[in-house]
């Protein structure tokens, strides 16, 4: 069942979200799904629906507070105005805490901008149990990724001009330095290859990345 809900952030403020529950009910493991720079649109709701069909409670925080766009320039503007630290430590942490109210384990899973946030959440949200990042790399100064204590999985495109292979390699090096439990996969594809609404969509890479993501989630939070 899908619905719009409101939950409390750690600072007491409220955040709205899209929530979908599986047939397994409210004690199933949870996943906080993090949007691309377009906002909380039908495509990211579809990701949440797919996870619910796989047996997870899925919650998508509305990080843009109701704003959604199809225009890249506006998306870039919305993303540049987002306080990533606040989103990670308040919106996302609050979402994880909300699901933890009845789910024994909760993961974060993000795409593009949400992929960046999934890694920041792995650093800052101590209640999270696992993280899956699809093509997003935070700036090195944004967080010390060597301190991540949870298992993390990453899916990256070799033809990505937004988050380049060199940036992915640098992130991997820091994770190795911290002895983080991580697995990275690289695909001969372009940025946003997993978004079926994108002209860069790669069905084969998407299918493989989804299978790997679901296997990872089943291992670590089911």
Structure characterization notes:
The chain has an 8-stranded mixed β-sheet, with helices on both faces. It has 222 residues and is an alpha/beta fold. Helix 5 (165-177) links the parallel strand 7 (152-159) and strand 8. 37% of the residues lie in helices and 23% in strands. It has one domain: Alpha/Beta hydrolase fold, catalytic domain (Rossmann fold, 3-Layer(aba) Sandwich). The protein has helices at 42-53, 72-80, 84-100, 113-124, 165-177, 203-221, and strands at residues 2-8, 14-20, 30-34, 57-61, 106-111, 130-134, 152-159, 182-190.
What is the topological layout?
Layout: E1 2-8, E2 14-20, E3 30-34, H1 42-53, E4 57-61, H2 72-80, H3 84-100, E5 106-111, H4 113-124, E6 130-134, E7 152-159, H5 165-177, E8 182-190, H6 203-221
Parallel strand pairs: 3-4, 3-5, 5-6, 6-7, 7-8
Antiparallel strand pairs: 1-2, 2-4
What are the main properties of this structure?
222 residues; alpha/beta; Rossmann fold; 8-stranded mixed β-sheet; 37% helix; 23% strand
Instruction: Provide the succession of SSEs.
Output: EEEHEHHEHEEHEH
Structure summary, number of beta strands:
8
Structural class: alpha/beta
The biggest sheet amounts to: 8 strands, mixed
> Ranges with pLDDT <50 over ≥5 residues?
none
| CATH superfamily membership | Alpha/Beta hydrolase fold, catalytic domain
User: Strand-residue fraction?
Assistant: 15-25%
* Gyration radius, rounded: 16 Å
Total number of helical segments?
6
Ends distance: 20 Å
Q: What is the architecture at the second tier of CATH?
A: 3-Layer(aba) Sandwich
